[in-house]
TrEMBL record:
InterPro entries: LD_TPept_cat_dom. It comes from Streptomyces mooreae. This is L,D-transpeptidase. Residues 38-60 have a biased composition (Basic and acidic residues). Residues 33-71 are annotated as: Disordered.
Length: 189
């Protein structure tokens, strides 16, 4: 190879190495260094800005008050007409309240106690349910609160006699955590 060709090849090779080096440097500078990068401690991160608000005041709707005829102390209150449940603390204030889908068989008004619980079973309607909290029996039908694993709610017009008062999965978990064996359940109109 003549000397002039060798010099051109060397110059081109050097230029190519420089270009590759610059591109590699730029790529490395913009990519996280996985060898030396440490996980950010959330206690030291910058505080997040509050979400932008419109001119209106964002106010959650007031929770339905605990029915006054439901007694005192720690209890579960089930209002048949309102189709609603309250988990009431020892101070008489609602810890949580939420709507439910009633069963086709309703318990008579009065006070009961949680009689049994099951983490997961198949409901009388054939649906997989969880967090089952039973408290009454009406003409051979066991009545209790439960949540369908698939999130479904029973058909209120069904002719089948069922005792499952359905709640959402999140509400079912809250009920499960609150309703230990023997917890008072008050059924009001």
């Amino acid at each position: 190879m003549p000397a002039k060709s060798s010099t051109i090849v060397t110059a081109l090779t050097t230029a190519a190495v420089v270009v590759v080096g610059v591109l590699g440097y730029q790529a490395a500078a913009s990519a996280p260094d996985t060898l030396t990068q440490t996980r950010k401690d959330p206690r030291h991160s910058a505080p997040k800005s509050p979400p932008e608000r419109s001119g209106k005041k964002d106010k959650a709707p007031a929770a339905a008050p605990v029915p006054p005829s439901s007694g005192k102390g720690r209890r579960i209150v089930y209002a048949l007409d309102a189709k609603r449940v309250w988990l009431v603390g020892a101070d008489g204030k609602a810890v949580r309240t939420y709507p439910v889908t009633p069963s086709t068989v309703s318990p008579p008004l009065g006070a009961y106690a949680v009689a049994s619980r099951s983490v997961s079973v198949t409901g009388s309607d054939g649906i997989a349910i969880e967090h089952v909290v039973r408290f009454a029996s009406v003409e051979g039908v066991t009545v209790g609160f439960s949540a369908a694993v698939d999130g479904s709610m029973p058909d209120p017009g069904s002719a089948k006699r069922t005792g499952g008062i359905r709640e959402s999965r999140a509400d079912g978990k809250a009920m499960w955590d609150f309703a230990l064996h023997g917890t008072k359940v008050v059924v009001v109109s």
